[in-house]
Amino acid sequence: MSHNVRISIGIAVLIALSVLFLFSLVHTAAGAPRPGSRAVAAGHRLAQAWCQSCHAIEPHMAGFFDEAPSFQSIADRNGTTALALKVFWRTSHQTMPNLVISPEQAEVLSAYILSLKRN
After folding, report:
1. Three-class DSSP category at 46
2. pLDDT digits over 61-80, tens only?
3. What is the pTM (predicted TM-score) of this model?
């Protein structure tokens, strides 16, 4: 493949990516789900996969498990903030398995828990 053809393909790819990016901005502005709601949904999926064997992860499950606090009760604590949860994910605890969690996973799990907070 010649150098000019590779440059043309590269430019076409950049233009296509730019169009997709602009479309996503317009689509979000037009009422599509906000990124925060995607984070909450991703956090809910992680909670289902990792946490629900010990914690009640949904509000209607509160009281179902005796050992671990429900996510609803964690969310409703006065000190539960995004920063507090961020610190929690990086701290080992005697009653929990050691979690190896990426910053992105910690962020979406925190978003889900904070979405449960009652006003």
Report:
1. helix
2. 755 567 789 999 999 999 99
3. 0.66
